[in-house]
Amino acid sequence: MIEFQVEGLQALEAELLALGPKIGGRALQGALTAAALPIVKEARAKVPLAHDAYRLHGGGMATPGWLRQQIVRKKVRHSKHSAQTLVTFRDQQQAYFWRFIEFGTSKMDMRPFMRPAFESAKQAALDRFVAVCRGNIAKASSKLHYTP
Q: Mean pLDDT for the chain?
């Protein structure tokens, strides 16, 4: 799993806590989900395409580009006080072979696409996170302080 951590976010944490755990959590989760989109798009662009259709584990056929369509972002909820978004594959059981492409095998050279996608899109993801989080916080705080 590739992770990155942004430090110096005490002001953001204070603003999210001021909104309350439920509203602040939604604002944070929405920003994380939005921030994962540039990485998903970059990974889809970088994944190598198969030359021919191939059989999937357990039956069924996959056409070239099938693995590209499997790359998605998923929200993970461990508790009401945490937020996490993963860039992963829609069908983990069928797309298990992405690891062989990414890291190679004894008989196949590696052709990384997830790590380079993260490296090339991480600044865009961070910029998007900041913009969406600011917007979410402003929107939520305006609703909280609204008096008819």
A: 83
